[in-house]
Amino acid sequence: MVRRKRHSSQGKPRTRKPSRPFPLAARQAIEQHIDTCQNPGLIYERYVHYQRKDDDWALGAPVKKKVIEATVKAQRRLGNYQDLWQGFQDRWRQTIGDALTFEAHPDFRFVSGLGRGGPLEVGFTFHRIYGFPIIPGSGLKGVARAYALVNLAEQLGASDLDGLDQLLATSDEREFWQAFDRQYSDAGEEARGLTRCFRKVFGTVGASGQAIFYDAAPLNVPELEPDVMTPHYPNYYQGPEPPADWQNPTPIPFLTVGSESCFCFAVGWRGVPNASAHEQAKNWLEGGLQELGAGAKTTAGYGYFKPRDAKPGISSRAV
User: Fold this and answer.
1) Distances (CA, A) of 198 to 7, 144, 174, 280
2) Which of 54-63, 66-75, 213-222 has the lowest mean pLDDT?
3) How many Cβ atoms sit within 10 Å of the Cβ of residue 173?
4) What is the pTM of this model?
5) Can you list the alpha helix ranges (DSSP code H) found in 78-160?
6) Taking burial as the number of CB atoms within 10 A of a residue's CB, which of 107, 162, 181, 289 is the most buried?
7) CB of 246 within 8 A of CB of 236?
C-alpha cells in the first residue's frame, strides 16, 4: 500500500509548526528548560527547532541564526557555574600531569570543526560533556607536525615536502637512514639531530610518537561570536554548473571563538624521558599555532594564536 502525502486545500505540502524530533515528554521538558540550559553544545547539536515540511527537516537561514544566538546565550550562562568550571580545570591539570604548557589566545577568531556533520550543516567542536569549545589534541598534533616538517625541509634544503614526509614515516630505522643519507648527503649534524627529534616526537608508520598532544582547555569561559560566510556561487559548489553572476549568494551563519578566549596548551611525554625533544615538541606547537594557524578558514585570517600577554587584533594574514 502506497501512502499519499497530505496536502492542504491549495494542493501544497502541509507545513507544520517548528518542532524538535523528540518524544513528546522529552520535547516538553526541553522547551520548558531551554532558556536556562547552560550547555551550548546540546543547543547547537541536539535541541534544534526544525521547521518541518512533510518529511523534509531542512533548516533555513533564519532558524540557523536563532540556534546560534541561543548557543551564544547558553555559553554566557556558563559563567554562573564557577564550581563546575573550577572542577573541570582541576581535573584537566591532573590529567596532563608533568606536561609542558603554554597559554595563548586567538589573534582574531578561531573556529574548529567547521566541516563536522550536524543539523546546522556547519559544525563546531564542543566538549563532549560540558559543551564549551575545545581544541582537539589530534588537530594540534597535526599543526605541530606540519610546522616541524616545514622547518626540517628548510634545514635540509628540501623542496619536495611530500617526499620528505613519506621518508620520515619509514618504520625501519636502518632503512630510513640509508635512504636519508642518499637523498640528503650534505645534511649537517644539526639537521640530522632535528630529524631524529622529529621521528621521536611524531613517530613513524610502525610506531607512535612519544609526544602527547592534549586537548587545549579554555582558561576562562570562552567567548562565542556569531559570524557569516557568503558563497557567491552556490550552484557551482553544489553541482556541475559553472560560476556565474546570476547565482544568488547564500549567507551561511557559523560560530567562532572570540579573541578574548584564552586556552592552555599541553604537550606530554611517554617512554624514556628526553627533555630536549619534549621541549622541541612544545616549541613546534607554539610555532605552528602562530605561523600556520589551526582550525578552519586560516587563509581568511582565522585560527592564528598569540601568547597570552600579546594583545589580540585583526590578523594581518586576513585576505
Assistant:
1) 64, 10, 16, 9
2) 54-63
3) 12
4) 0.83
5) 82-96, 137-156
6) 289
7) no
Instruction: State the CB neighbour count (10 A cutoff) for residue 19.
Output: 13
CA gap 46, 26 in Å, rounded: 12
Cell matching residue 116: 563536522
Angle at alpha carbon of residue 287, lines to 153 and 147, rounded to 5° = 30
Rounded to a whole number of angstroms, the distance between the first and last alpha carbons of the chain is 58
Residue 60 has pLDDT above 80, yes or no: no
Q: What proportions of the chain, in percent to the nearest 5, are helix, strand and coil?
A: 40, 15, 45
Q: Could you give the CA distance from residue 236 to residue 232 in angstroms, rounded to a whole number?
A: 9
Higher pLDDT, 146 or 249: 146
Q: Locate the domains of the chain by residue range.
A: 86-142+211-307
Mean pLDDT for the chain overall: 84
Q: Which residues of 217-255 are buried (b: 16+ CB within 10 A; e: fewer)?
A: bbeebbbbbeeeeeeebbbeeeeeeeeeeebeeeebbbb
Question: Could you tell me what percent of the chain has a pLDDT over 90?
Answer: 47
